[in-house]
Write a structure and sequence with these properties.
heterodimer, A: 262 residues, alpha/beta, Rossmann fold, 11 helices, 10 strands, B: 564 residues, mainly alpha, 3 domains, two-stranded antiparallel ribbon, 26 helices
Chain lengths: 262, 564
């Protein structure tokens, strides 16, 4: 059993079966990519894991515990963080505040502590700020801590989203197309960052990605979805040569070959 | 005149005319003309029309100045003359066309105001001359460089405001000084001149050296800045505390107004937590104000035999915690059913809640307990060591304490874990939840905190009025409080104070406004949304960002202009 197991997960929207009987095991400390054509059900699967959708059938086991009936905030507190396909920062908060919000579940003060200004509260806040600055340093945004996050350029917003997710101290990090819209250099940097997350922080990464170059480069395991069903799973090498995958990607096959050639 | 923007100029003039006509025909001009700003020189009504000319003229002049500097003055003049001509046409046609039958405000008084108390042609010429002069002034204003224009404009505004607020300052100032500056209504001519010159000098100095002084203050090390800031706060606080004693009997009216403003500030601070911090649009906020007020009234009045037979009347301090508790609980009770709703739906539910409370209070069924339509009298007053608060000055202190509590809570929570959770929910609730924020507890805390502050405000309100009636708690209160937040800058604490003074204080002081309150509110809100959506005094972080972006955008247009 891995750190995150999806067992026969099915999610329907009316007549549409978005995720159909998918079983995926994510091993700890790996980068596990989920790929598939548009509308294959990848993001729906993410939403099922994080509790925003309730799976109609099947089980989701995180760290040995079933989580498919838990509310999303509780799942987050257990250690699953995510980023979004279309960046969703708290745009009118500062960069630092965004990260501090991510640390919410590791802090304890509520109403009365800040009002009384208790020393324990002040200490907690000071440490949280320090920790947040360290995270910003990690993604190289510490010099922009007091900018409004909506005023950051695109690539930095992506990195901030990752920093915010890291603030949760997640065991599993779900990244939804982290390199979308990036230029080759930014993509390169993001890949390095993702590797460092696994190697330095021991975080398990589940990655949705369309850029095959990225996927083939950094994944330990790849699962392929098509029309909500898992059609293949294996190492990058296995997936590259799998006839069913090539079939599903037929339209993109040429592009895939080209990007590999390049 | 080649290239003169005839079309734009005429269009702006006609638009200004429409505004001027509107202001005249709804009766504002005539009503306001009863208040003199400078004795025998200018009334508020005339000022209103001049303001229209100035704004319209300035807009036209700015457009025209792009072609040729000299055109600015011509454009201003044309706009002024168009507006003057339209107003003259109105003044002359009221009688022959029997306009009074359609527009009740098209009265002889309006004609007199429009024609400057002169008859026929003389009046028309005066009107045209004044309006044309205003237009030329607007054109000149456009031609002035920034560092000259700004002090002049500010000085003009400051002087006129002082004239407008005669009722306050004539009372506050010692008799001898007051006699120099003020007459029985408005400024004296010499007073106005002295003030205008003084203000111009002040603003010119601020323009010249303000930046340097501020820069030098900011360059000071933080440990030197702190005592300076604390000193400024201390002086302000001492002034506030001493003011009621200083003014004595004379200050009754002023403190009546200040008390009302203060009650709205406390409510505003509460609603700011709900709407400004947590982003939960609450249109029924008056309900909590009512619950605080009614709990205080019901528990302390000697009336209401149905209640008195079980509980003897309490005093203010016994009832206050219960009033706060009642509003806190009602905040949670409202909060629970609306947890899942967002945006517009939330607004509609809270709107309903506000109405439910009002209808309960006014209902005959609950009359034995809540007093029905007549309300309740004999509400207890706060007392301290044998001294009982009676006058507006006395209540001023209590309201000041309530404001301080509201401020303190807001400041402390704003950047705490809870405050960040509120703001995160305001920005994107789904993501906030995905960050592990318990949205149930977070939202309920916001509702409860906001409701408690409204309850505090209501309890003081009912005690101050000595009696309360349901009509004091209608939906408009919710709208006023929300409007003052928007005008001040949503989420901003100083903004609450600024908004309360602008939207509650000014209309109280300017009785002429009372009738046009909603009109002015509406216009002010529309203007705010177009020209200053961030509010008069926006939250600091926002303010810095706005300034920064504005800086870069003007820099960009400047370089773009240079390239052309």
């Amino acid at each position: 059993m891995g750190i995150l197991d999806m067992i026969h997960v099915t999610k329907r929207f009316g007549g549409l079966i978005a995720v159909n009987d998918v079983t995926i095991t994510v091993e700890p400390r790996t980068i596990h990519s989920i790929i598939g054509p548009n509308g294959a059900g990848k993001t729906t699967l993410f939403n099922c894991i994080t509790g925003f959708y309730r799976a109609d059938e099947g089980e989701i086991i995180f760290d040995g515990e079933p989580i498919q009936f838990l509310p999303p905030d509780e799942i987050a507190r257990m250690g699953i963080a995510r980023t979004y396909q279309n960046i969703r920062l708290f745009s009118n908060l500062s960069v630092l505040e965004n990260v501090l919000v991510g640390m919410h579940s590791h802090l304890h003060s509520w109403f009365i502590e800040p009002i009384l200004g208790l020393p324990s509260y002040k200490r907690e806040e000071a440490e949280a700020r320090k920790e947040a600055m360290r995270l910003l340093e990690f993604v190289e945004l510490d010099d922009k801590a007091f900018f409004l996050s909506k005023n950051l350029p695109y690539g930095e917003q992506r990195r901030l989203e990752i920093a915010r997710a890291l603030a949760l101290k997640p065991k599993v990090l779900l990244l939804d197309e982290p390199t979308a819209g990036m230029n080759p250099r930014e993509t390169e940097e993001t890949m390095a960052l993702i590797r460092r997350l696994r190697d330095e922080r021991g975080i398990t990464i589940v990655l949705i990605e369309h850029d095959m170059k990225v996927v083939m480069n950094i994944s330990d395991t790849i699962s392929v979805l098509d029309y909500g069903q898992k059609i293949a799973e294996g190492t990058p090498l296995e997936i590259r040569t799998n006839p069913r995958v090539i079939e599903a990607y037929l339209g993109r096959g040429a592009a895939m070959g080209l990007s590999q050639a390049a | 005149m080649r290239g003169f923007p005839w079309r734009e100029t005429i269009r702006t003039g006609l638009l200004g005319s429409v505004v001027a006509l509107h202001l005249s025909l709804v009766g504002m001009v005539e009503a306001f003309s009863r208040r003199e700003i400078v004795k025998d020189v200018v009334t508020l009504g005339q000022l209103l029309l001049l303001l229209v000319v100035l704004v319209a003229g300035y807009l036209a002049a700015r457009k025209a100045a792009e072609r040729n500097k000299a055109y600015a003055i011509i454009a201003g003049l044309i706009v002024g003359l168009i507006i003057g001509a339209v107003l003259a046409a109105l003044a002359l046609s009221i009688k022959p066309l029997h306009l009074r039958q359609v527009f009740t405000n098209a009265s002889r008084g309006l004609v007199r105001v429009l024609l400057f108390d002169k008859k026929g042609m003389a009046g028309v010429l005066t009107l045209l001359a004044v309006m044309g002069g205003g237009g030329i002034a607007a054109g000149l204003l456009e031609l002035l460089p920034n560092h000259v224009r700004r002090p002049l404009l500010y000085a003009l505004i400051a002087t006129l405001t002082l004239g407008l607020l005669r009722d306050i300052f004539a009372v506050i100032l010692p008799r001898s000084i007051s006699r120099f500056f003020y007459t029985s209504s408005g400024l004296t001519v010499k007073g106005a001149v002295v003030l205008a010159v003084a203000w111009t000098l002040y603003f010119a100095a601020a323009e010249r050296w303000g930046q340097q002084v501020r820069g030098r203050l900011e360059a000071l090390p933080p440990e030197k800045q702190k005592p300076l800031r604390l000193g400024a706060y201390a002086i302000a606080l001492i002034l506030l505390l001493v003011l009621p004693k200083l003014l004595g009997e004379r200050g009754g009216y002023i403190f009546e107004v200040l008390d009302i403003v203060g009650i709205y500030i406390v409510m505003g601070l509460g609603l700011n937590i709900v709407v400004g911090f947590a982003g939960l649009l609450d249109l029924g906020y008056v309900a909590f104000f009512a619950i605080g007020a009614y709990t205080m009234a019901v528990l302390t009045t000697p009336e209401l035999p149905a209640v008195r037979q079980y509980i003897p009347p309490m005093d203010f301090w016994e009832a206050l915690p219960l009033a706060l508790l009642a509003s806190l609980l009602s905040g949670i009770i409202l909060g629970v059913p609306v947890l899942k709703t967002r945006g517009d739906y939330l607004a509609i539910i809270t709107l309903g809640f506000g109405e439910i409370i009002r209808l309960l209070v006014i209902s005959d069924a609950l009359k034995p307990i809540l007093g029905g339509a007549q309300g309740i009298t004999g509400v207890a007053r706060p007392h301290l060591f044998g001294w009982t608060a009676k006058t507006p000055q006395d209540f001023f202190y209590f309201i000041l304490v309530a404001i301080a509590i509201g401020f303190f809570i807001s400041v402390r929570l704003k950047d705490s874990r809870l405050g960040r959770a509120w703001k995160a929910i305001r920005e994107d609730e789904d993501v906030a939840i995905a960050m592990g924020i318990d949205h149930v507890a977070t939202k309920l805390t916001a509702f409860a905190t906001g409701a408690t502050l409204a309850g505090l405000s209501g309890a003081i309100f009912s005690s101050k009025l000595f009696s309360i009636a349901p009509h004091s708690f209608n939906i408009l209160i919710s709208i006023y409080v929300l409007s003052l937040l928007i005008v001040g800058g949503i989420g901003s604490l100083p903004g609450v104070v600024v908004g309360a003074f602008a939207l509650v204080g000014l209309p109280e002081l300017l009785r002429e406004f009372a009738e046009y309150r909603m009109l002015v509110y509406g216009a002010a809100l529309v203007m705010m949304m177009i020209f200053r959506p961030q509010g008069l005094w926006p939250e600091t972080l926002h303010a810095e960002e706005y300034a920064r972006r504005k800086g870069t955008s003007t820099a960009k247009t400047a370089t773009a202009g240079a390239r052309e």
